[in-house]
Amino acid sequence: MSDGLEDVVAAHTVLSEVDGAAGRLVMRGHSLDELAGHTSFEEMAALMLDGFVPDLPAMKDLPAALGAARAELFETVVRKAAVPTTLGPVEMIRAMTALIPDGEDAGTVLRLLAAPAVFTAASLRLQRGLAPVAPDPALLQAADTLRMLHGKAPTLQQAAALDTYLVTVADHGLNASTFASRVVASTRAGLVSAVLAGISALKGPLHGGAPGPVIEMLDAIGTPGNARAWLEAALDRGDRLMGFGHRIYRVRDPRADALKGAIRRLGADSGRLALAEAVEQAALAILRERKPNRTLETNVEFYTALLLEALGFTPDSFTCVFALGRTTGWLAHAKEQIAGGRLIRPQSVYVGPQPRQAA
Ligand code: ACO
C-alpha cells in the first residue's frame, strides 16, 4: 500500500525510462539529447509506435497520412461540431476528440495523433471569434499547427522550436496521464477513450496544467527584483510554486534545459528569459531553505511556459499543446498495454464501518 502509488511498479515498458536520480530520460533507446532538436513530431511518433501498429504508414508516408487525417478531422469535426466556446481550450479539444469513433486500428491512431493539432488551433481561433483555418496536408504537423493557429506560415525556427517541445514531452514513464490511458486501454474501451483519459488527467495543475500558472506567476512578479518577496509570500500562503518539484526527479528535470535551449535558438524576448531565470534562481534558493530535506528542482513546465508563450499560444492552451506531444506516448502505452492483454485492477483496503451484527 502506498499513497499516490509512489514506488509501485505497475508495468514493464519498452517505451521510456526516467532515471530520477541521474536526471536522465531515455525514449526507445535514445537519450533526450539525441532526440530533442533533431527529430520531427512525425519521426518521434514513428519511433514510439514502432512495432505496435502494424498498418501504420512507414515513416516516408507518415507526414502525408497525418496531413490527410488533419484534413479529415477539420471537415468531419471542426466544421460540424458545435462545441461551446465558453469551455476552456482543454475542454474544447476533449469534447472534439470525443467525437472521433473509437477503435484500435491504424486509422484511429492517425486521427488521434492529428486531433490535438487541428482542435487546439481551431479552439483558440473560435474563442477569439475568428474562423478556423483549414490544415495544409503538405506541411509537417508542427508547422501546420502554427499555421492553423496564426493564419500564416511560421518561420523554420518557430516550427523547429515546436517540434523540439513536442518531442521533449512525447513520453515520460508511468506519469499520471499515461497511467490513466493504460488503465482505460486495458479494459479494451478503445484508443479514443484512452486518449480522453490522458487529456483529463493531464489538465490538472499538479501535472500538465502547471505552465499556465507559471505565466501568471511571472506576470505577477514583473521584475527580477520582486522575485524573492513574491515567492516567499506565495509559500507563506501555502501555495506551491508552479514549475518546481517532481515525483521522480531528485535533480533538475533534463527536459527543462532541452526547452531552454529551444527558447534561446528561437531568439525569443531576452528580457522575458532573464526574468524567468531570476525567478527560477530565487525559487530554487527559497525551496532549498524551506524544504532542506526534499530536493525540489525546476521541472519541464517552467520553460514550457516560456517557449509556448513565445510561439503565440495563450497560457490556457499550453495543456493542449502538451497533449499534442504526449498523445504519441499515450497511444504507444495504450497499444503496449493492449498487447500485454491484462486488465489493470488493483485492490483497496476497506477502512469504513462493517454492518452491525444482528443481536
Ligand atoms: N512548491 C512548494 N512546495 C512544494 C512544491 C512546490 N512546487 N513541490 C513539492 N513541495 C513540497 C510539498 O508541499 C511537500 O512538503 P511537506 O512535506 O512539508 O508537506 C514536499 O515538498 C513534498 O511534496 P510531495 O507532495 O510529496 O511531492 P509529490 O511528489 O507528490 O509532488 C508535484 C510532485 C505534484 C509535481 C509537486 O512538486 C508540485 O505540486 N509541483 C508544482 C506543480 C507542478 O509544477 N506540476 C508539474 C509537474 S511536471 C509534470 O507533471 C509534467
Provide a short characterization of the protein structure.
With 359 residues, this protein is mainly α. It is built from 15 helices and three strands.
Helix/sheet category:
mainly alpha
**Strand-residue fraction?**
under 5%
- Which oligomeric form is depicted? single chain
Which class of the largest domain in CATH terms?
Answer: Mainly Alpha
Low-pLDDT runs of 5+ residues are none
Feature tags:
single chain, 359 residues, mainly alpha, Cytochrome p450-Terp, domain 2, 15 helices, binds acetyl coenzyme *A
Description of the molecule:
There is one protein chain. Helix 6 crosses helix 7. Helix content is 55%, strand content 3%. The protein has 2 domains: 16-194 and 317-340, Orthogonal Bundle (Citrate Synthase, domain 1); 211-310, Cytochrome P450-Terp, domain 2 (Cytochrome p450-Terp, domain 2, Orthogonal Bundle), CATH 1.10.230. The relative contact order is 0.16. The two termini are 35 Å apart. The mean pLDDT is 95. The chain has helices at residues 32-35, 41-49, 62-78, 89-97, 106-127, 141-150, 156-168, 176-186, 191-202, 211-221, 227-236, 254-266, 270-290, 300-310, 318-340, and strands at 16-19, 24-27, 30-31. The protein is globular and about 55 Å long. The chain has 359 residues and is mainly alpha-helical. It has 15 helices and 3 strands. A 3-stranded antiparallel sheet has the order 1-2-3. Acetyl coenzyme *A (ACO) is lined by residues 4, 206-208, 210, 240-247, 291, 294, 296, 299-301. Acetyl coenzyme *A binds at residues 4, 206-208, 210, 240-247, 291, 294, 296, 299-301.
